[in-house]
Amino acid sequence: xxxxxxxxxxxxxxxxxxxxxxxxxxxxxxxxxxxxxxxxxxxxxxxxxxxxxxxxxxxxxxxxxxxxxxxxxxxxxxxxxxxxxxxxxxxxxxxxxxxxxxxxxxxxxxxxxxxxxxxxxxxxxxxxxxxxxxxxxxxxxxxxxxxxxxxxxxxxxxxxxxxxxxxxxxxxxxxxxxxxxxxxxxxxxxxxxxxxxxxxxxxxxxxxxxxxxxxxxxxxxxxxxxxxxxxxxxxxxxxxxxxxxxxxxxxxxxxxxxxxxxxxxxxxxxxxxxxxxxx
Length: 279
What we know:
four-stranded mixed sheet, alpha/beta, globular, 2 domains, Lyase 2-enoyl-coa Hydratase, Chain  A, domain 2, six-stranded mixed sheet, 2-enoyl-CoA Hydratase, Chain A, domain 1, 10 strands
């Protein structure tokens, strides 16, 4: 793995001034690491803002063909910063305006992952809880270390995980999603694989390498079908069957007109490797 930015890597850096997210890149794969392990990589206001900004920069970066989202330390993400939330209980409206705003920012972050042109792969070691589990479910793919664990524990503290529910219900079967949401119990890596929350389970400590391997394989492909395909995948899911087929047919016809589709088909017929130009 390439070195992170100097500010993220410097041991002399003041933790209060260190970046929330460390970015590195090797070839066409950008790796974003949640970089507040002492705060359990909670999705604080600062963390959400930094991650949203990093994704916005990547969206316009033609050199990035796939993204890996990992984390430093033993906790992938503990979800929302509960201290920030409780600090607003004394507001005149008992925190309603703040709660709505912070949840809006969280939704903006999660939808930014889904709408990013490049595929995003979560690399999870340790615990991913509440909005941290939502973060994993929002990624296009996910690779977990063997001892990774997932949980939506809100129901245990009088707070149903309503917003994590959105991502979970779009990735898991209804009964699996409801099991996680209603019980608030730990889901081990192998069960997360069985339930569809993650794609692969690697030996402990191997999630990042596994995710980067998938990212490199995606980065080798023409970006025309990858970007069109990712956007179309999520768009058609919101449509009825007939409308989904009509929409997918339009997008596929557009894809067929691309230079790389012509090149790819020609390469198959000529029994040679294709030469991509991403157009």
